[in-house]
Write a structure and sequence with these properties.
The complex is a heterodimer. By secondary structure, chain A is mostly helical. Helix content of chain A is 70%, strand content 0%. Chain A has one domain. In chain A, helix 1 runs parallel beside helix 6 and helix 3 crosses helix 9. Chain A is globular and about 60 Å long. Chain B is an alpha/beta fold. Chain B contains 9 helices and 9 strands. In chain B, the strands form 2 sheets. A 6-stranded mixed sheet of chain B has the order 5-6-7-3-8-9, sandwiched between helices. Chain B has a 3-stranded antiparallel sheet with strand order 2-1-4, covered by helices on one side. In chain B, strand 6, helix 6 and strand 7 form a beta-alpha-beta unit. The chains are: A mainly alpha, B alpha/beta. At the A-B interface, helix 1 and helix 5 of A face helix 2, strand 5 and helix 3 of B. The complex binds adenosine-5'-diphosphate (ADP) and magnesium ion. Adenosine-5'-diphosphate sits at the interface of chains B and A.
Chain lengths: 265, 259
């Protein structure tokens, strides 16, 4: 484990140092990442100029949902967003190169071209959360859930990307389906899930466990009843959901790696 | 150092695009029932026409691919099961594609290799200086790999594969596309490496000059099977009528398929 972290940090540092050779470009892309995602918040603000609540949630509460989902997604994307590029690496032969090095191919793939400018998005989500929190006056006895939910969200998004990558061991010509789930999920979880209708909420609760990224734990933090009337216990199950999904993803990755067949050339 | 016993590798390939696939999947036997041993310190050339199974063999030796049958041992390890441990004892060069980091300067690649293989700093510095000198890398250490010429890149790849001082070096077509001067430099380097450090070398090639100048032993693979294993002189003796080694090999390649 420490070896994996060490490898990750070493490779990430090398990429950042290479990017820092062009400091102006690095600064511009980072600021751009911040500003582009800030447009999402502008969209939320526009909605609230017409209404005082969205599916019963106030502006501050929606900003809280947005901030926690954004933070989880942006951190997971920065750290592991590359693992569903497996088929590109297989086709280019770079995956073979990763396999001949004494380091985890998963870590090598995750950190390849480490995109430091994505911290711009992390900062943006952090700012939104920092603006929302004081106004919400979350009591301390419920606030412990906030870091827990962000970490669980990171694990869930990472597991989804890993599953997508694992799938590409079998179908090298498969499109990057995981992106639909993770980017879609990143967008989806920015709003109160109850705006989407019951069927979708049940789907993202029990099938693709996106509801555990922030929706269920946020109901706890905000002290709200579940609009769908799902069991109260669910709001504490994010760690279990994240762990279960991570195990499935790890097994799928291993199974895929065993079936790896390189390319004929 | 390298031992193969009855090794086979097949691929199931689906034919044509999904919507007009006729018949079931087809099985390609890239390598079948391959057995040979290479002792420590040997220099072996691995020869064969396109699609004979050379690259597949190399990928199995390095643990990239698991064999579908048979047993492999390299430096005392089963490559596909002990890939990460084996990586520290083996050096791998693919002439057709690089194992270096495409967008990073060569120097950064070497730096990463040192950390990934956990080579001691002073040992690494000495080894890198030595490799830079004999492979003449000094002029482009700060150039990103993607900007290097083919000859420069291959030399960089060879250096990266040897920084951790492996006991075995396998090379898949290292001289492909190189000009005469680069080719001579690479050959001379490999020859001294084998003679002076005793590194076991196995290389695939289409270049018979490589074979004549470097390899004491030649193995020829055809349709995934070992068709010849012996010295260069023995190879010549298989076709007494032919004068050049080129013709001897052409004759071996164009024998009717054994299957
Ligand atoms: N990943 C793969 N998938 C399907 N077929 C493959 C794959 N790798 C190799 N082959 C097939 O196996 C045979 C041997 O290929 P290879 O080992 O690359 O030959 P060589 O390196 O001697 O030219 C070829 O027929 C090739 O098409
Ligand atoms: Mg080949």
């Amino acid at each position: 484990m420490t070896d994996l972290v060490r490898t990750y940090v070493l490779l990430a540092y090398t990429w950042v140092r290479a990017a820092a050779q062009y400091p102006v470009s690095l600064a511009i892309t980072t600021v751009a990442a911040f500003l582009v995602t800030a447009l999402d918040v502008a969209a939320i603000a526009v909605i609230f100029t017409h209404t005082r609540s969205l599916a019963g949630f106030t502006l501050l509460e929606v900003m809280f949902l947005y901030g926690t989902a954004g933070l989880s997604f942006a951190i997971a994307d920065l750290l592991f967003g590359n693992v569903d590029r497996l088929s590109q690496h297989v086709r280019a032969g770079t995956f073979d190169a990763m396999l001949i090095r004494p380091a985890s191919p998963f870590v090598q793939m995750a950190v390849e071209r480490f995109a430091f400018h994505r911290v711009g998005r992390i900062a943006q989500a952090g700012v939104v959360l920092a603006i929302a929190l004081p106004g919400l006056e979350v009591p301390w006895r419920r606030a412990w859930m906030i870091p827990v939910m962000v970490v669980c969200g990171i694990v869930i998004f990472t597991a989804l990307w890993t599953l997508g990558g694992a799938l590409q061991f079998l179908l090298t010509d498969a499109p990057e389906v995981a992106n639909a789930f993770t980017y879609g999920g990143g967008q989806l979880t920015q709003y109160p899930l109850s705006v989407y209708g019951d069927d979708l909420v049940r789907g993202v609760t029990f099938i693709v466990p996106l509801a555990f990224v922030n929706w269920q734990p946020a109901l706890y933090v905000l002290g709200r009843p579940d609009p769908l009337g799902l069991p109260h216990l669910l709001r504490f199950l994010s760690p279990a959901a994240a762990l279960a999904l991570a195990c499935v993803a790890a097994l799928a990755w291993r199974a895929g790696l065993r079936r790896y067949r390189s390319t004929g050339s | 150092m390298i031992e193969l016993d009855g090794v086979g590798r097949s691929f199931t390939v689906r034919q044509g695009p999904r919507w007009r696939r006729r018949g079931g999947p087809r099985v390609v036997h890239a390598v079948r029932d391959l057995s040979f041993h290479v002792a420590a310190g040997e220099f072996v050339g691995y020869l064969g026409p396109n699609g004979a199974g050379k690259s597949t063999t190399i990928k199995m030796l390095t643990g990239i691919l698991a064999p579908t049958s048979g047993r492999i041992q390299v430096a005392g390890l089963d490559p596909s099961r002990r890939r990460a441990v084996l990586a520290r004892r083996i050096g791998v060069v693919f002439g057709q594609r690089t194992t270096l980091w495409w967008d990073l300067p060569l120097r950064d690649s070497f730096h990463l290799v040192r950390h990934l293989y956990k080579v001691d700093r002073t040992v690494h510095a000495a080894r890198l200086a030595e490799l830079c000198e004999v492979l003449e890398l000094g002029g482009f250490l700060d150039t990103p790999v993607r900007q290097l010429s083919l000859g420069q890149r291959v030399r960089g790849d060879i250096a990266a594969a040897l920084l951790h001082d492996p006991a075995v070096l396998v090379l898949d077509e290292p001289t492909i596309g190189l000009d005469v001067v680069s080719k001579a430099a690479v050959r001379e380097f490999l020859r001294t490496l084998n003679a002076e450090r005793g590194t076991t070398v196995l290389l695939t090639t289409h270049d018979l000059g490589d074979i004549e100048r470097l390899c004491r032993r030649v193995m020829l693979i055809d349709h995934g099977r070992l068709a010849f294993d012996g010295t260069v002189d023995e190879l010549r003796a298989t076709a007494p009528g032919e004068t050049s080694i080129e013709d001897v090999v052409t004759r071996l390649y164009t024998r009717p398929s054994p299957s």
